[in-house]
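Researcher: I've got a protein sequence and the SMILES for zinc ion. Could you write out the 3D structure of the bound complex as structure tokens? I'd like something to compare against our soaking experiments later this week.
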Amino acid sequence: MTNRRNDEIDRRDFMLASVGALGAAALIAGTAQAQDAGAKPETSGAAGTAFTGDIIDGKQVITALDISDLEPGKHSFYFRGAQMPTGQHWYVSVMVAKGAAPGKRLGLISGVHGDEMSPIHTLQTVMNQLDPAQMSGSVIAVFDLSRPAVEAMSRRWHSSGRGMDLIDINRAFPGNENAPEASTRHAGLVFNRLLRPNLDYGLDFHTAATAMDATAFHLARMDQPDVRAMAELFPIDQIFDNFGEVGLLANALIDAGIPALTPEIGKPRVFDHAMIELFVEGTLNVLKHHGIITGPMGRTGADSGVFIADGMLPILTTHGGFVELLVELNEVVVEGQKVAIQRNTFGEVVAEYTTPRGGEVGARRTDATAEEGTPIVFIVFDSATPVGGDAIVE
Ligand SMILES: [Zn+2]
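Model: Sure. Here is the predicted complex with zinc ion in place.
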């Protein structure tokens, strides 16, 4: 209320000044965090849970989480993220199950992409099964990290700064609280005030993108022992051993010293209950592995015969048209095998697609049409497997 908005004030000062509109507790915590974020991005200490004093649908609103100051038990909050153009905020749903005994802290994240529903159900199922009285350590679930994307059943964040932009927030981590763009600010708020100070390990759940379907798989950096140990505890089909992209939440967590991976639960937009069951079982195995809960280990990758691939090859269309796929998920394919036929509106064949190398089908397109240059099948493979002819590798 006492803020003086001045066009010449620099953006960082503005971000700090606007904290002054909050209550005193939030002012102290928020300012300290913002300064930390600017000066020492690697700082990992939490500065106390900061409450705004607001209640939404019975849930307390927080601007920072520090699970060390929570009582054992289950807690639900709305975390206040980036501001919308109207001046209200995007609130993110957070649940903490804090054990009666101390121990490791696992973060479960969904909703980084808003069209990926099975991850949300997976987190709800796991959290519902936890009994804090029997736990040593904590589980923190963030259900709808990219809130506007979830509202729109959309992969990308809807940003209106310069007219509508659609931004993939999973290329923006660890974010920046002072960035001139809402999704990057939001990524920074969530990363600095919710995740980094409270996690020892992280699982950021995803699915295939809209118009694709995929096997039960992980994107995981298997050269990292702690990542590998968690990844192999899921009774799934495939693991793609790969760095992925700069800006992935899992990579930002790893850079902050928090081993993390990206489980991928099949198709987007729907609940795939059969596949959710596999990832719930794997997540409970990870909790047992870290001693947060006790009980016999469930099925793991050893039981499912998980295929660890170090390569992934997209087969791209060379024409626009209607695509008929000839291969199914998980199907083993050999070099030169025909995987799809494409026709024009008259039904005339305009292209046939073969795989330039053998492997397994990891993902396939579900929309019947495809523009030129659209991936229609992804083949995953192990590069140690011999390749003949002029196969494309990487
Ligand atoms: Zn995703």
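Model: Confidence is low (pLDDT under 50) at residues 1-44, 387-394. The first strand starts at residue 50 and ends at 56.
Researcher: Great, I'll pass this along to the crystallography team.
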